[in-house]
Design brief:
Blueprint lengths: L4 H15 L12 E6 L14 H16 L3 E3 L9 H10 L3 H18 L15 H15 L1 E4 L4 E4 H11 L16 H5 L3 H9 L4 E11 L4 E3 L4 E2 L2 E2 L7 E10 L5 H6 L8 H11 L1 E13 L2 E9 L10 E4 L5 H5 L5 H13 L2 H6 L7 E8 L6 E6 L11 E4 L5 H10 L35 H15 L2 E7 L4 E2 L12 E4 L2 E4 L32 E2 L2 E2 L7 H5 L2 H4 L12 H7 L4 E4 L7 H14 L12 E3 L3 E11 L4 E3 L9 E6 L4 E2 L2 E2 L1 H7 L7 E3 L8 E5 L11 H7 L2 H10 L7 E2 L5 H13 L16 H19 L3 H17 L5 H11 L4 H10 L11 H8 L6 E6 L3 E6 L6 H9 L5 E5 L2 E8 L2 E7 L1
Parallel strand pairs: 1-2, 1-22, 12-14, 22-23, 24-31, 25-29
Antiparallel strand pairs: 3-4, 5-6, 5-9, 7-8, 9-17, 10-11, 10-13, 10-16, 12-15, 13-14, 18-19, 20-21, 24-25, 24-26, 24-30, 27-28, 32-33, 34-35, 35-36
The structure holds one RNA strand.
Length: 921
RNA sequence: GCGGAUGUGGCGAAAUGGUAGACGCGCCACUUUGAGGGGGUGGUGGGAGUUUUCCUGUGCGAGUUCGAGUCUCGCCAUCCGCACCA
């Protein structure tokens, strides 16, 4: 009987679906384990073999955990709002919901063929109103909350209103856009509109004017993580900076917690560092410089991490967008400044990046006074100072900052060195190292002493204070697009007002075309009657990350219409134990999700402070493209090895008609009409193709479809092979040619159970050699799966099966545990054999530890231990030799010995004359 | 520039500080058959030798150690992330 994977896989996939084998419910009697994949955006292209890599790994882990007795939550869903569906809708007029549903159906079909153990009863789709009701709900909660800095927690905004009414801003320490000071009397006399404006400055979801990334081609603003090197991540369109009023989330209020709480997570160091850099904490001080425009005096605050260098300040610099620019531009410089601002403003973000090292600037005409020296220094305006960081103004110390140095050199400003013996004739001295000089009371200190001393002095004299700054900005939360969650907000007398909770979900209206309106409003401006109680509703929609920020919570309780997640479900499933996904979400989704979770935690809706305890980043699978070489001006193709003898053009050829770099010539002739009568120059009777590693994409003809692999080899082979390729975390090219090896392994595995005539498993007693093989595998699998080292586990299986095959072992005592061990990796064949062994229930209900314990018996073999192939002695493990006895034995053979056998490991390390170490496990 | 990671055969890759290259692909030889991506056996880092075998070998250079692919330091190369963040 042959291994008929097609029949087997179909049979078990329908069995799992019919029996809801992987459906789970909260069960306090069993320990839970939550394994989550980053849910996909269902694109029109469908899945290629790279996409399921992480899903396969997490599925293996889920099935393994299930065998270990855990109640495993392993759900899947779709991140279904987003730009591509909408762009497609603009082109074709089809409703994005239609194409999205079609793509989802296709994804589901492909996923099902691979045999995942998802609990599909918990599926979520972010574009489903029943789902986005809770996205909108969270937004309303953020709208009606503020962040209390002293308590480090989100609080209801009503508490802030009460505080204002009682004491004004006195005693309030809240995260806000701009610092405000007013009395209770002033607050109580404010109009509704004024109060609303004040509160907007404190809300966690708020509307504010800020420099945004505007993408004209997409017609929308984008968040920082959606822009890379001046281009939109989606579509690659140029992006420019623009001041706009937008909805934002006060993520920055959580910067400190987002940073500190990274320490407790089991994420890779590189990913944690990426987030640390993105959040970017720096310790320093804010110092006030008096600035004078003619007779007018201003207090200008700057941020610095180098308070020790105040004595070396020779000029000040403002960001072009800074509010100080207007105040400090002297009449005689007005024209020059305006020209400079106009020039800076019209640059796209890309141009700014391209000209990064070009020094530009203009003198404002004003001067500032150094608070420590009393010296007068000019105030300049330059692009190299960013409006969004610190206070948008800096003190420049050209001797010890390379950017200030370049600026000083360009505009001939003085440079005062502050460190003994440093050379600033060619470049600045940026290192925090050396002895201070020219620095008044700091002279003689090392830099490391001088920094805290200077800050202390600044605080004592009241010219400034200690300050921690973060690079993390608030997230721009509105998009001028159609295919996203509508904001549950309407404008009553121009005041942004939340919709009552019982009016959620606010459903996306139908519109005729998905373009902006003639007046430049977002597409929702086209909707008929987009109002609430006669007032206009918000017309922008939420960004992609809105729906993906809390989906892991919704899986815990996906059908609940009264809460995002019930207390019971939340306190049972708590948080994700293992999260598998790509590293591309490091500074986007993984920050927003953590923020969102912390917010809900503050308000008491969830019980865990962090959403994803352990994170594994699977690598990308690249494509391996194949080429044929056409001799120019002919229809003749020359094999790769001979191509240098001709003048040829390299042409991508569909990798699916190439096997082991050998071209299927007939298939090639049929592939495209142009090649129907192609001629070939072969080597050794074959056409050998060239190859290259490139991104997997349609245009390179290197897309390998998992369906195709399932057709030819089966899902179990696909699963094993994806794991066998190498460590899950590593990026690697897909190369179909190695797949025969794992396919061969499965066929061989099958033949341990079946020969030509039928089932051959017997009940005979296993031999010591057979037990040894099994024990080796058990030991390996237990440690490797926990370490996510699946490629070595697959290898260990191959070794074990080869050994058993050689031993002609067909004993139940060995094969039954072997089937259990293999089942996480190759579930279909395992189920089939499990059934053949006489079990009526799914193998998923088998118990792994039971078998492991049952079979980790005292090994009774006698092993020969060899020393570099020369000396020999024996260790009889059936006698359970003590460490001392082994040591005595080894003393007579003073060389290096190492032996691994069965469930027991003896390793003796000896150097001439002495035993260094003995390990017996 | 800053931060992180990686570097081992023709290829994908293994190696708690202890016989480097397991396992698989590819390749070579033999074998079997109902040769369509068939099954089996053996070989396969490099160099030398008819055989036992010897020399050499994990990016480069030092160091720690009885012993280093593995640990430390310094280079070099590649990849990823951030990038005028004061």
């Amino acid at each position: 009987m042959d291994y008929d994977f097609k029949k087997i896989e179909k049979k078990w996939q329908s069995y799992w679906a019919a029996h809801e084998t992987f459906k789970v419910a909260e069960d306090p009697s069993r320990p839970k384990f939550y394994v989550l994949d980053m849910f996909p955006y269902p694109s029109g292209a469908g899945l290629h073999v790279g996409h399921p890599l992480g899903y396969i790994a997490s599925d293996i882990y889920s099935r393994y955990k299930r065998l270990c007795g855990f109640n495993v939550l392993h759900p899947m869903g779709y991140d279904a709002f987003g730009l591509p569906a909408e762009q497609y809708a603009i082109q074709t007029g089809q409703h994005p919901a239609v194409t999205t549903m079609k793509n989802i159906a296709r994804y589901r079909e492909q996923l099902d063929r691979i045999g995942f153990s998802f609990d599909w009863s918990r599926e979520v789709r972010t574009c489903d109103p029943a789902y986005y009701k809770w996205t909108q709900w969270a937004f309303l909660k953020m709208f009606s909350s503020y962040y209390d800095n002293s308590r480090q927690s989100a609080r209801p905004i009503s508490e802030l209103v009460d505080a204002f009414a009682a004491n004004g801003t006195a005693g309030v320490d809240a995260a806000c856009g701009e610092e405000m000071t007013f009395t209770a009397a002033r607050w109580n006399s404010m109009s509704e509109k004024e109060k609303s404006d004040v509160l907007m400055n404190y809300r966690i979801a708020y509307q504010g004017t800020t420099a945004v990334n505007w993408c004209p081609a997409l017609g929308t603003v984008l968040a920082n993580d959606e822009v890379k090197e001046g281009y939109s991540v989606r579509g690659g369109h140029p992006v420019e900076q623009k001041m706009m009023k937008q909805w934002q989330l006060r993520v920055s209020a959580y910067a400190g917690r987002l940073l500190d709480d990274l320490d407790g997570l089991e994420w890779t160091d590189s990913l944690k560092d990426m987030q640390r850099n993105w959040i970017g904490r720096s310790y320093g001080a804010e110092i006030v410089f008096k600035a004078y425009n003619g007779n007018k005096e201003y207090d200008m605050t700057i941020f610095t991490t180098r308070a020790d260098t105040v004595f070396g300040v020779t000029f000040m610099v403002l960001a072009p967008e800074s509010e100080w620019v207007e105040k400090l531009t002297a009449p005689e410089q007005k024209k020059a400044v305006e020209e400079y601002l106009a020039m800076a403003r019209k640059k796209t973000e890309r141009e700014r990046i391209a000209e990064t090292r070009k020094v530009t600037g203009v003198f404002s005409g004003s001067y500032a006074v150094n608070p420590l020296t009393g010296g007068k220094v000019p105030v300049w305006i330059s692009e190299y100072v960013l409006a969004g960081y610190g206070t948008g103004a800096i003190m420049a110390v050209p001797a010890h900052d390379s950017r200030d140095y370049a600026f000083a050199r360009t505009f001939n400003l003085p440079i005062i060195p502050l460190i003994e013996g440093c050379d600033v004739s060619e470049s600045s001295f940026d290192a925090k190292d050396g002895i201070m000089c020219n620095s008044g009371f700091l002279n003689g200190m090392t830099v490391k002493e001088a920094i805290p001393a200077a800050i202390e002095y600044v605080e004592k004299t009241g010219i400034g204070h200690r300050k921690v700054n973060y690079r993390l900005r608030d997230a721009i939360f509105s998009r001028q697009r159609y295919w996203g969650e509508p904001f549950p907000v309407y404008y009553k007398d121009g005041i942004a007002t939340p919709l009552p909770e019982d009016r959620l979900p606010l459903k996306l209206p139908e519109i005729s075309t998905y373009l902006p309106t003639e007046t430049g409003e977002p597409p929702l401006g086209r909707a008929e009657d987009w109002t609430y109680e006669g007032w206009p509703l918000e017309k922008s929609t939420m960004p992609g990350f809105a729906g993906s920020s809390a989906y892991y919570l919704r899986y815990m309780d996906p059908h609940n219409d009264d809460a995002l997640v019930s207390k019971e479900a939340d306190s049972y499933w708590r948080s994700v134990d293992l999260y598998v996904g790509g590293t591309e979400h490091a500074t986007g989704h993984l920050i927003y999700s953590r923020f969102w979770n912390k917010f809900l935690y503050d308000l008491g809706y969830v019980c865990e402070n962090e959403p994803f305890r352990k994170l594994v980043n699977q690598g990308m699978i690249q494509g391996r493209s194949n080429f044929v070489y056409r001799i120019v001006n002919t229809n003749t193709f020359v094999s790769c090895g001979l191509k240098d003898q001709y003048e040829t053009t390299e042409i991508h050829v569909d990798v699916n008609i190439v096997h082991n770099d050998r071209l299927d010539i007939d298939a090639f002739r049929k592939w495209m009409p142009d090649f129907a009568d192609a001629e070939f120059i072969l080597e050794d009777g074959e056409y050998i193709c060239g190859y290259a590693i490139e991104k997997m994409s349609k245009s390179m003809f290197n897309v390998v479809n998992p369906d195709m692999i399932c057709d030819t080899y089966g899902a179990d082979t696909l699963r094993l092979y994806e794991m066998f390729l190498g460590p899950v975390e590593q990026s690697k090219p897909w190369d179909t040619k190695g797949i025969d090896g794992v396919n061969r392994f499965l066929k061989r595995f099958w033949r341990l159970f079946y020969d030509r005539d039928g089932f051959i498993v017997t009940d005979g007693k296993a031999s010591p050699a057979e037990l040894k093989t099994l024990h080796k595998l058990i030991g390996k699998e237990k440690t490797d799966i926990e370490n996510f080292s699946f490629n070595t586990t697959v290898s260990a299986f191959m070794i074990a099966v080869n050994e058993l095959y050689e031993l002609k072992c067909n004993k139940r005592e060995i094969l039954e545990p072997l089937v259990i061990l293999l089942s996480p990796f190759a579930p279909h064949i395992s189920e089939e054999l499990w059934e053949a062994l006489g079990h009526s229930e799914s193998i998923s209900y088998a118990s792994f530890p039971e078998y492991v314990e049952a079979y980790t018996v005292e090994d009774s073999c006698t092993y020969a231990v060899s020393f570099n192939g020369k000396t020999r002695f024996t260790v009889d493990l059936s006698k359970s030799m003590s460490k001392d006895e082994v040591e005595a034995e080894v003393r007579q053979n003073p060389l290096t010995a190492k032996y691994v056998g069965g469930a027991s490991i003896v390793k003796v390390i000896v150097v001439p004359g002495k035993i260094v170490n003995i390990v017996i496990k």
